[in-house]
Design goal:
There is one protein chain. The strands form three sheets. The protein has a four-stranded antiparallel sheet with strand order 3-4-6-7. The protein has a two-stranded antiparallel ribbon with strand order 1-2. The protein has 426 residues and is α+β, with helices and mostly antiparallel strands. It is elongated. It has one domain (2-421): Up-down Bundle (Outer membrane efflux proteins (OEP)). It has helices at 2-12, 25-35, 37-57, 78-84, 106-172, 178-213, 240-245, 247-267, 309-375, 381-415; strands at residues 18-19, 22-23, 63-72, 89-102, 233-234, 273-284, 293-301, 420-421.
């Protein structure tokens, strides 16, 4: 997890921590790694798999048991009278050592299955960490997108308010009609509603970011427009070796391996089981027992007929193995397609970001010129509003493209962190 987190933080946002009531991306990821219920659940599942592996090893090791019991008979058995004389009391104790010699490979297969499950769960945890980083990164930039949309609407409201004041001054001076004054007032009222809507959207996105981080409160991204680094590059094809190391693929491969061992364990039920067992025991009419004795020998258990249960279990295990095989194939196809799609989208958004930046600069120049010309009474209010709409739409388009690009880059890194070459931000 540390390697992946370091790569994501390096590529997406150099700054770390929390800045005066708002979070940087690094701070969001750090908080999510500690508080996310998904990660905590997967870590608990990994502990469970580790304990299951240790439990599966037990039957392969020597088994040592001790027994101590007391019984009182209504009538003494003749065999007991021969051992310790007349008494209705019977004290018995023993120590027994048992070792499995052969069981058709059943318990070895169970241990191997548990080991495969442990490795699969480790891969699942790594995949969950990547998914969490992507989810938090996406939520972070979505919240930042909403915050920028809010700032754009507020800036536009300031401009509209100033235009309304200007229109009223021009009207009082006889240089504008009452229609222009009424239009500016209507536009101002509509813009105030737009600001309220943008505020609500920013709050909703802050709630979504907090939820992604594992918090029960809204979390706001540190406000800043990311400056893109034009030198960042993407590896277009996912190498086969990296595909094999992808956690999602490893998880599917581990499940397939475990299913194969489960099938072996079930088939081993058809074989006889051979144990070596030795016991040292004492039996008497008083505590602590006397009359020590011992035995040692081999014990064979052979399954003859179990109503077709073993065959049905084998068929069930084989079906599960086929399911796991197809899941593994699906995982490889999904990861490959997801990586290719993310790279294609990131490259497209990178080009569009450059184009949108140029369009935004032209829109800014047009708006500045229009504001000056309107103040001088050389253009109409409609022409000024067109310039404002062009500026706001260009600004929103640029911001959306930038955040779409960063989210796409995060999707690339979620599949293969080294697929992003260079820093995304300046």
């Amino acid at each position: 997890m540390k390697k992946i987190s370091a790569l994501v933080l390096l590529l997406l946002l150099p700054a770390a921590g929390r800045a005066q009531g708002s979070y940087t991306l690094a701070g969001c990821l750090e908080t999510a790694a500690i508080k996310s219920p998904e990660i905590l659940r997967e870590r608990a599942a990994l502990d469970e798999a580790e304990a299951g592996r240790s439990a599966a090893l037990g039957p392969l090791l020597p088994q040592l048991d001790a027994t101590l019991n007391y019984q009182r008979y209504e009538e003494q058995l003749p065999s007991k009278r021969a051992i310790f004389g007349a008494s209705l009391d019977n004290y018995y104790s023993d120590i027994t050592l048992k070792q499995l010699l052969f069981a058709g490979g059943k318990y070895k297969a169970q241990f191997s299955a548990a080991s495969s499950g442990r490795r699969a769960q480790g891969a699942r945890l790594s995949q969950a960490e990547r998914e969490l980083q992507l989810a938090v990164t996406r939520a972070y930039y979505e919240q930042l997108r909403a915050a920028h949309a809010l700032e754009i609407q507020k800036s536009l409201l300031e401009k509209v308010t100033q235009q309304r004041i200007t229109a009223e001054l021009l009207y009082n001076g006889g240089k504008a009609s009452v229609v222009d004054t009424l239009k500016t007032r209507a536009v101002e009222a509509a813009q105030r509603d737009a600001v309220k809507n943008a505020e609500n959207q920013a709050y909703v996105k802050a709630l979504a970011l907090g939820q992604a981080m594992g918090l029960e409160e809204p979390a706001r991204a540190a406000y800043a427009m990311p400056a893109l680094n034009k030198d960042a590059e993407f590896v277009k094809e996912l190498p086969a070796a990296e595909l094999d190391k992808n956690p999602e693929v490893l998880y599917a491969a581990g499940n397939l391996e475990r299913a194969g061992y489960d099938l072996k364990a079930v088939r081993a039920e058809h074989y006889p089981a051979l144990y070596a067992r030795g016991s040292y025991f004492m039996e008497d009419k008083s505590f602590f027992p006397g009359n020590a004795n011992s035995y040692a020998g081999l014990f064979l258990s052979v399954p003859f007929y179990r109503g077709g249960t073993l065959s049905a279990q084998a068929d069930k295990a084989e079906a599960r193995r086929r399911q796991a095989a197809e899941s593994g194939r699906k995982a490889r196809l999904s990861v490959t397609a997801r990586y290719a799609g993310a790279v294609s989208t990131a490259l497209d958004k990178k080009e569009r970001a450059a184009t949108s930046a140029q369009t935004l600069e032209l829109a800014k120049e047009a708006l500045t010129a229009s504001e000056l010309r309107y103040s001088a009474g050389k253009i109409t209010l409609v022409e000024l509003l067109d310039s404002q709409n062009l500026w706001s739409s260009s600004y929103l388009a640029y911001a959306n493209t930038v955040f779409d690009y960063l989210i796409s880059a995060a999707e690339v890194a979620a599949v293969w962190p080294e697929g992003v070459r260079g820093e995304l931000l300046k």
